[in-house]
Amino acid sequence: MLTTPFDDDQLHEECGIFGVYRHADAARHVALGLHALQHRGQEAAGIVAFDGARFQAHRAMGHVAEAFESDRVMAELAGYTAIGHVRYATFGATILRNVQPLFADMSFGGFAVAHNGNLTNAMALRRRLVKAGCIFQSTSDTEVILHLVSTSQQNGVIDRFIDALKQIQGAYSLVALTDNMMIGVRDPLGVRPLVLGKFEDGTMVFASETCALDIIGADFVRDVEAGEIVIVSDEGIRSLKPFGSPKSRFCIFEHIYFARPDSIVDGRSVYDVRKHIGAELARESGVPADVIIPVPDSGVPAAIGYAAEAGVPFELGIIRNHYVGRTFIEPTQQIRNLGVKLKHNANRPQIEGKRVILVDDSIVRGTTSLKIVQMVRDAGATEVHMRIASPPTTHSCFYGVDTPERSQLLAATHDIEGMRKFIQADSLAFISMDGLYRAMGEPRRNTDAPQYCDACFTGDYPIPLTDHWGSEEDGPRLPLFSKAI
Amino acid sequence: MLTTPFDDDQLHEECGIFGVYRHADAARHVALGLHALQHRGQEAAGIVAFDGARFQAHRAMGHVAEAFESDRVMAELAGYTAIGHVRYATFGATILRNVQPLFADMSFGGFAVAHNGNLTNAMALRRRLVKAGCIFQSTSDTEVILHLVSTSQQNGVIDRFIDALKQIQGAYSLVALTDNMMIGVRDPLGVRPLVLGKFEDGTMVFASETCALDIIGADFVRDVEAGEIVIVSDEGIRSLKPFGSPKSRFCIFEHIYFARPDSIVDGRSVYDVRKHIGAELARESGVPADVIIPVPDSGVPAAIGYAAEAGVPFELGIIRNHYVGRTFIEPTQQIRNLGVKLKHNANRPQIEGKRVILVDDSIVRGTTSLKIVQMVRDAGATEVHMRIASPPTTHSCFYGVDTPERSQLLAATHDIEGMRKFIQADSLAFISMDGLYRAMGEPRRNTDAPQYCDACFTGDYPIPLTDHWGSEEDGPRLPLFSKAI
Amino acid sequence: MLTTPFDDDQLHEECGIFGVYRHADAARHVALGLHALQHRGQEAAGIVAFDGARFQAHRAMGHVAEAFESDRVMAELAGYTAIGHVRYATFGATILRNVQPLFADMSFGGFAVAHNGNLTNAMALRRRLVKAGCIFQSTSDTEVILHLVSTSQQNGVIDRFIDALKQIQGAYSLVALTDNMMIGVRDPLGVRPLVLGKFEDGTMVFASETCALDIIGADFVRDVEAGEIVIVSDEGIRSLKPFGSPKSRFCIFEHIYFARPDSIVDGRSVYDVRKHIGAELARESGVPADVIIPVPDSGVPAAIGYAAEAGVPFELGIIRNHYVGRTFIEPTQQIRNLGVKLKHNANRPQIEGKRVILVDDSIVRGTTSLKIVQMVRDAGATEVHMRIASPPTTHSCFYGVDTPERSQLLAATHDIEGMRKFIQADSLAFISMDGLYRAMGEPRRNTDAPQYCDACFTGDYPIPLTDHWGSEEDGPRLPLFSKAI
Amino acid sequence: MLTTPFDDDQLHEECGIFGVYRHADAARHVALGLHALQHRGQEAAGIVAFDGARFQAHRAMGHVAEAFESDRVMAELAGYTAIGHVRYATFGATILRNVQPLFADMSFGGFAVAHNGNLTNAMALRRRLVKAGCIFQSTSDTEVILHLVSTSQQNGVIDRFIDALKQIQGAYSLVALTDNMMIGVRDPLGVRPLVLGKFEDGTMVFASETCALDIIGADFVRDVEAGEIVIVSDEGIRSLKPFGSPKSRFCIFEHIYFARPDSIVDGRSVYDVRKHIGAELARESGVPADVIIPVPDSGVPAAIGYAAEAGVPFELGIIRNHYVGRTFIEPTQQIRNLGVKLKHNANRPQIEGKRVILVDDSIVRGTTSLKIVQMVRDAGATEVHMRIASPPTTHSCFYGVDTPERSQLLAATHDIEGMRKFIQADSLAFISMDGLYRAMGEPRRNTDAPQYCDACFTGDYPIPLTDHWGSEEDGPRLPLFSKAI
């Protein structure tokens, strides 16, 4: 079997989270919300529901629609409150024990938690906890949080939870469930998204993106703020700010690629931002051309913005095959060379004899861009210009995005001209850093206090990378561990 | 479980076919070709390969990438020649016995056949054959062809095959495989598509659409002609025309909806035709608006054409969720009302406060259009105008397209104003018949001898509907039949 | 994977059949009857039911209890009449298309048939039928019968069926189902068993063995006679004898090994016959010993008979592991040498220091006997004597029993002393032919007109072996054929 | 679906354990050993292997032969040391998380443990551990041991393990695995069995019963003693006795029913003990009869012993269907009444007109005995006498045997005559307590210091039942718990 050729050359979000408090169909609504967040993780999905007496969980590999298709499964998830999770595996194979939400019986009752992001001191904490006698059942960062809560010396769930949060570092949006509360949390810099929504009847909802509110007909209330803990209970809504009021550093890549174009994240329309990036690109690095062609699907809004600004026709010059699954037949070498075509095909009549500007969201390893350029040239383009709706990706992300090691990033080892040669385009341009910030509505990047986390472009990591920076003697990230149940 | 809400309100192509003669990786190439034809049928897929001594078959429910993922399966399909089929079930549940290609040992050797289309006298022929002692193992029309070949009094495979073809009525493109030939056939009116392709090394290929040639790097040679039998063997290529030279009546709906936009069918770029339809629509029924929004994905090219002609911005105002599978959780009534949102979501910032023109390919039952209009209005559109890239669909298809009974077709029971009211749009317009033909490059529809099969718009059925018109005493379409193996 | 070691060295019955006419729970009763016949075939099972309007079938690989476990499956098999089949595959892999009962829509209505036995002219008939245009969908002999019925020039189901039976050769017990009859048939020599049973309410039942009547509480009425056709319908029971009254040649191996000990077959208690064989063995070839130990499970009744006659204690000196499935882990060579122990273990305290007589039903290849003797010797036996409850198996069966080729039969290539040396026993004796017939209640074997089919011991084949004796040019048994659906 | 009718009316052992230290094929040998112990648990199986660097685990529902059939699975279990477990679920549904061996990364390295038995203070310990912050992932008693080891204040694995063992109460045989030791333990009273075996090359083996040594060709060395810890490492074998030298109280029911007849447990041949019980029964409660019939399979050795002592013929008058799986079709009431026949059938010719003595191992609820007596009477027995190879089962077991609640035990609520009436036998007798002890080779039961644990017959529980005797406020056995992963 072969992982579809493009997967290796794309960044992957790790997770999406969702929760519903007090609704007759809590688990069904969570399943729908997760379905709308499916783009944030396709490997596995899980829901934990509470019915006033018992917690029930269902977790499965695969898509939400399959995992929660069975009436029997949904019947077992009866209950008026539920939280859920979709996941893309970061480390090694996803095993079922790692699928969230995780749950534990603690001295004060049941506690479930779902996590979007990545802890940067998880290994250090894990070593400390194991030394103290804690037994880990998964390789998931999230389990660290469970053990910190469980072993906290504080009284009460909330104080224990805050105690745990104060020990962890990293990017995290969390939704937690106890027997009388649903809790939403964003890390002190608010790197990963989390919004609060509300049904007409007052039922409260947490979601990674607003598109998950839309699918169930809930209204957007507001973002959970950076460093904020929002507690939803029968007493209403409470907000805690145990970290004070740090300045937010939202992940700018959510706007460029991860979030769905119909979502409002961090206060902005994703689609609009992408169109503005396209327009900035056209202004910054315009070149005479006959047609603007997006690399589907993520390049489409930027290409529309580019085309409108440049006054050049926008056409679907590359058609995507939407039936691409995760694997396909093991190809012979001859077939492997056709690889990219499993997913994309040139729409020759829109390309032949034309000067083409391709618009894509980013370049990771560059192997896909090379094949796309080649495919467009084979279809008869006289010139192929590549325009990228983000600055060069020069650094790995440690905050919940699955990036290759730095040495695998084309932009980490090549300058622009080197990259152009690698992908064999006639010209290559990336949006400038300030152009990107302008598209976000900022005058420019504030280098003293950047408005966003842009570490993948700058190496400016706003949260310590404790595990990554740790010494050799700290041992491997994954210690001895038993295989999947 | 629930079939995804939109399925009921869309037309479905029945099948795609593909064949490769004399290639070291015949079956792998057929799997790739079928993958490119996946849009023509997602229910099941099959391949029959011949290695010079034995025929081997693999057929499975589901997508091509799953059905042929296993190395073991592909190893068993070794052989230098192979044909394949993707299928959308027309009658009842798809059962594995119905999955094509069908195969039979006959007195002259093995014979396999894959079929895209529908026979209109299959039941009459079946009754006659059963009376003569033939035993049917499937409910598939295609098996009728097998029995006609097997029981033919002619000598030689080709004469038997022609004998069979002369008895069947209907729309059919066929690819057949014997122990020394691969044969491609189109019915006398050439209703369904079939093209001939070639590898650089001379290997010949049959495919329903050119996009399936692209994926394996084969060149387009020509269409198989209406009523033509093309025989590929080690002796080269032979063309027979047992039906003389009837005038072609290609299915115009292939251009409007079924074919992939990057295919060339019947000599024209599908994408171009759709853009021209959009432009014609803009000229015929333009209305002041702020934004042109396609109903994704099929409405996109027409919307681009409309927007360019009208000088109004094109925006992705409706975002499609590509993770919609065939089923989802059984919704409660409240959730059912959210149904359409499983697949589509309004991109509110592109809609709010604007006069919107929606462009869609067709209206079948109208229930989806109603929900789309509602969704767009809920997102704040001040006006919602629906423009349809085909004439009103007033008649059922009996030539291989899965249409509802006529009484279920909105256009069969409502005039334009009635349809507008039903879908609650501010205005509704369909392209005119002549406008459609103009977009196809014709001056107008030739009413005496129409250039295309447009029966779904006109009721002008060019091939007799023997089974459909038959008397009651002919009995039911499906006689006693045992359940799926 | 490894087929459990003993399978290769045991004879296998091909099939068991069962039918119930006019009972509210027809299919459930058939499933129970098949469960009681599971020893006759463990590879696959199937049921066809008729509800007065439609035939429904379910066929599956594996045991009856799994194949018909699902309530949904049983609900679909509603109907007042049903026939069923359990199968052990004779040729190649069992594929689902071969699983019986087979069914066909014929000009007169539906016709289903289940078959226990083997046709000896199936290939010759198949060639003739294919030449006439018949299309075969399976490699099963049984399908020949379907086509003979379907293409018969006779009128009426019964006459067509008789017409078909007159053309086939071989050993066969059949149960057939039409829309108003259930029909039971035994071949003219009555080689394979078939009995008629009755519920208190008059519902009629066909079964391969009486133990299948017991499980559903039906009473044994009588054997279907050799060459008899028994027709059960709403008009009652009719008996036809189209072959006159040939003398029966029932398979003597059914008594020795195949039939369940609690069955009455051909008028005799299987358990009693086996005990009598054991007693004959003790009289014919007694030897001083301390303990009689059966090779479980088939050797138990003969060992009890032997022990009682010899006045030597009977002990379970070999314990069988009943959890042996069809496959186990691929063993290394070291483990392979332990092979036999997956299924059997010596009960050392019953063996150590003792002179042991082992009693087994037959010797096929001899490899198992060798390992058993070795195991018993390793457990401390001072002498190991093997006594076999059948004469030497010198010939292959062509009448429905899965025997190795003749060259693989130990008795075909070794005399008794050679066999003794091969299995390394201190002595070896088989029951004499006349001793066997005495145990059956006969004075001796009537060599002019043997009372039983004993071809596997004598090579005296009472039914022509047309396919087997055919010339090379008749071609291979399995012509071109497509892989399993 | 229906659990096979007999399951409810039989006692079930919970588990079997097995371990191999330093062998090239450790995991394969463990799989074979578990296969030989399959009678001790059929619900699930697991193996943990260590290759000098990493621990690997595979656990699955179902039989050993299925769970470890895959070459891929076995390849992943490479390593020179492995322990394994077969399991019968005691509480609720078996879920995969409960399948042993359990494993945890602890501060000193990996630690795996497999457990046969039951802890009687598991809930009390669990509550204490949860209060201290431990997170449990399973409902298994065994996890308590893991947490006790993990949180122990002692240094070194052995001291931590002993610290844990000193806190637990109950019946337990354990096999544990660390990165340099394999450890076998029996509880201070040695209630559950555990033996030490050795290959010729010195490889050491732990097994629940000797039959598991036989299958891999290992020699029996000795029993692990009551309260003994046996440590196998590269330094050789070490024995610790942290509990001093308490007098053993081995479970007498292992001899009566659980252990395989070819095993030597606690120094005695199980088969011999059962024969002696049968002989004692014949002496204590003989009655004139024509035939001795065992209730298969567990009653066979006792029936042989009875028959030999009584001089009455032993016959297989009841035939068992070995193809009974865990479920079957949901029967209608009529079929339910046939229930017992799914598994057993009367061998009528051995019964009809005879005075029958049935020999069974025990009576639990009595429902099966009732049906068996009825079946034998229906087959024509003139008298039916039931003889039971154990004293009346009047008390539940809390030491690892799955018994019904006391109120469900027929002997807890009926005297002998009441039980006889219930099962409708002509006479009923159980072996006396002293008769049972005589069969074990003792002069009688030493009432001051019984030689065995016979609590199920006497209510004399040698180990405190802390959880069972605990007050209401201790809460339910299973607190809030999430559903199966």
From TrEMBL, chains A, B, C, D:
Listed GO biological process terms: 'de novo' IMP biosynthetic process; purine nucleobase biosynthetic process
Pathway where this protein functions: Purine metabolism; IMP biosynthesis via de novo pathway; N(1)-(5-phospho-D-ribosyl)glycinamide from 5-phospho-alpha-D-ribose 1-diphosphate: step 1/2
Keywords: 4Fe-4S, Glutamine amidotransferase, Glycosyltransferase, Iron, Iron-sulfur, Magnesium, Metal-binding, Purine biosynthesis, Transferase
Annotated cofactor note: Binds 1 Mg(2+) ion per subunit. Binds 1 [4Fe-4S] cluster per subunit.
Pfam families for the chain: GATase_7, Pribosyltran
Amino-acid positions noted as binding [4Fe-4S] cluster in the UniProt annotation, renumbered to this chain: C251, C397, C453, C456
EC number: 2.4.2.14
Residues engaged in binding Mg(2+): S298, D360, D361
Domain Glutamine amidotransferase type-2: 15-235
The keyword Iron-sulfur is annotated on this UniProt entry: yes
Stated family: In the C-terminal section; belongs to the purine/pyrimidine phosphoribosyltransferase family.
Name of the protein: Amidophosphoribosyltransferase
Gene (name only): purF
